[in-house]
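Hey, I'm writing a tutorial for new members on how sequence and structure tokens pair up, and I'd like a real worked example in the thread rather than a made-up one. If someone can provide the structure for the chain below, I'll link this post from the tutorial.
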Amino acid sequence: MSSASPKNSAPDPKIADAYFEPPLVDMRVLKIGGLSVVIGLLMGFVAQWFMHLIYFITNACFYGRFSFHPAAAMHNTLGWRVIFIPILGAVVVGLIARYGAKEVRGHGIPEAMEQVLLNKSRISPKIAILKPLSSAIAIGTGGPFGAEGPIIATGGAIGSFIGQLFEITASERKTLLAAGAAAGLTATFGAPVAAVLLAIELFLFEFKARSVIPVTLASVAATCVRMALLGPNSYPLIPHLVQPGGEAIAFYIGLGVVCGFFSVALTHGLTAIEGLFEKLPIHWMWWPAIGAIAIGVVGWIDPRSLGPGYENIYHILNGDLTLKLLLTLGIYKLISWLISVSSGTSGGTLAPLFTIGGALCGALGMLLIHWLPATGVDPRIAGLVGMAAVFAGASKAFLASAVFSFEVARQPMSLLPLLGGCAASYFISCYLMRHSMMTDKMHRHGVRVPTEYATDYLDQMPVREIASRKVVTVGAGDALEEVSKWMLSGAGSGRHQGFPVVDKQGRLTGVITRRDILEAGDSPRLKVEDVLKRPPVYIYEDCSVRQASDQMARHGIGRLPVVSRQNPGKITGILTRSDLLEAHSRQLEEHSRAERNIRFAFPAKKT
């Protein structure tokens, strides 16, 4: 037993096992990327089929005609009879949910997230048919929902189904699910960058080349199909915007703060009303029909609240509505959507939140420009900021919300107000609410949902910073009996569970443990090299602590020799489980120090 003093020699590469960091991408990324392109092309057609199915149901139910041409329920002339159409549609949705697939209920996005987190991204193929069918019925019969949630769920189901046809990992299947979701959103709204960001923030829970590249390819493929079917559609939704000044930017940021509080209230209100539905003494199949009563009554009072309301968004962003029309639209849409979506029917949240946020914030912008015209506030930009900021606060998809609105508006002058307003709303939402509208129900059901994507602290720390430098080695030619007595006595350095074994040249040949000695018996003729059962496993000193822990877990060992990459034969240290715990303790100490600073700056109120 001696301190390590190896010569300039390397372990035998045939038996040694060091940690080699894998490349960022490999040939499997090409395979997943190719499948993602297929999914993107398919979703380009599926999205258009879905929208035309909504148009067909809208034409049939509100206008009595057989047509797939675009139609909006808000222009109907049915009067009080309009109350019954959403109720009938909701009854059909309830039947599909009960006897087809319960998973068709809900916004679409949370349900897809739940499959990623709990079911290894496996979604039943029937969801790809029943989800768009039920959502088209709900929206086509006047439901105040958007098409984005259902098409995201449909794309996710198709991506998951294709992933299940091949022998791929759960992580790769998650990438295909996210690719389908991004492709569906892109094909519906023509916002490819925002679709990729939304997939990262809500489905991938990571930013890695091997997952982002396939998702981006799917989004690009879906965009190409959309352009081929609908044309380039490159005109700006908000024309003639000018660069906002400092006072206007300050207002838009303040508007984001208001939207943050509003999104928190919306989330809590949604939870409260869902709780009321759960207390009803009837089967959940009938809840959508009860919620649809609100759709019908409000739709009779103000037909503009019926359907997804994309036409309303266009008028808000073009400044076509008066103050009274903006306020009534926002309030009626809020009442209709909040009650109906809480009932568990099938429909998305983006379009209604855009309408509500855009209408109410556009009204605030109109009031300010009337009272203080010198601020230079544009009610159209105020409406755009309101749309993005409310969704950013409710979903906590900050970047996706800002970029989505920017891509829809196609106006460079809107980007700065959008970033400021969404950042302010995101801050308020994160400060007051741990979980978003998309994840709150999952959290209440005990599902752990990632809320932040941070660099792994252990991945940033090199092994040489925490490895023990004083290394005690055992010679390969030493008598096992002597080593056994020394180790089992527990005296001095012999109290450890294992030791690196070196040959006469000081070259690492393995690691011997107490278990190896006990299983070998007490034969006096055995040497240490006779009982070595595994090749030497080691780690380079410039590798990260995370890589070292992965190496330990992969081989089921608790002690890892550390060697120099330039001179692999030189043992420079030893890494143990205790060293890993110490590194983790450093991270916890830094977090604790930060939390103490926060408590000092914001002391808790006495109760």
